[in-house]
Design a protein that fits this description.
This protein is of the alpha/beta class. The chain contains 9 helices and 9 strands. The chain has a single domain, classed as TIM Barrel, CATH 3.20.20.190. Helix 5 crosses helix 6. 44% of the residues are buried.
């Protein structure tokens, strides 16, 4: 089960990053900054070549790294040579991250999904590392199919579903039908994963279903991404812990 004493604290979204200071999201300095302040860490994990779990948000390296191409094509040798656009940091593997954090603060790991069939080789590697980690860790994803596999592979590691309003024309628009998006919004596809917690979009709170899972079912509820005073007030009222960015609590 989720260790509430460990996790119910401010959680730094992709680490304590600050682009104006040259501290890039999901990098070693961002994570070290969060650790120094005692904040929990939220991060993203996706597969490189061969299913190697690396700490990176986007499908491509184009936005943040001095290079171009899909993350899924990165080989180990690429991780040793590519740098972020600040010219200093390199992409961390999931194993690197676990060694860095080493149980000092709770680690909330989002497994990225492009809504394809789950990559069991990649998920097996994530599960093995998470199960062997000595510290508070939880795994989550927008994709309930991913988390159903994680439930099978790492049943003792706390797992959750990430969701939100699925309104407008977000990244899901070309990947999901309207009906599936609505089901995901209402947490109707959660059962196979049997999540112990949810992480829900702060601007959509409260909803009847988030109140139900938190107040009736007793599930923990994180909320993302908290950036403004209004967000902070909403998070304090309707969630158990805020995943924050752009300020310090």
């Amino acid at each position: 089960m989720l260790d509430r004493d460990a996790f119910f604290r401010p959680i730094a979204h992709r680490g304590l990053h600050n682009a104006k200071k040259g501290i890039i999201e999901n990098t070693r300095p961002a994570f070290e900054g969060a650790i120094a302040k005692g904040y929990g860490i939220e991060c993203d994990v996706r597969p490189a070549a061969g299913g190697l779990p690396i700490v990176f948000h986007d499908e491509t390296v184009n936005r943040l790294v001095a290079g171009k191409g899909h993350v899924r094509n990165l080989e180990v040798r690429d991780l040793k040579t590519l740098t972020y656009k600040n010219g200093r940091e390199r992409i961390l593997t999931f194993s690197d991250l676990l060694d860095l954090v080493a149980g000092k603060v709770p680690l909330l790991v989002e497994i990225k999904s492009e809504w394809d069939p789950p990559d069991r080789s990649f998920l097996s590697r994530v599960a093995k590392l998470a199960q062997g980690y000595k510290g508070p860790i939880a795994l989550m994803s927008f994709d309930p199919d991913v988390m159903a596999v994680v439930r099978e592979l790492a049943p003792k590691v706390p797992r959750g579903i990430v969701s939100g309003s699925y309104s407008g024309h977000g990244w899901w628009g070309k990947k999901l039908s309207k009906a599936r998006a609505q089901d995901l919004r209402d947490l109707l596809l959660s059962a196979p994963a049997d999540p112990q917690f949810y992480a829900y979009q702060v601007g959509a709170l409260p909803t009847p279903v988030t109140r139900y899972v938190r107040e009736v079912c007793g599930r923990a509820l994180f909320t993302w991404t908290v950036r403004t005073a209004k967000d902070r007030a909403r998070a304090a009222r309707w969630a158990d812990a805020a995943i924050f960015e752009g300020y310090e609590p």
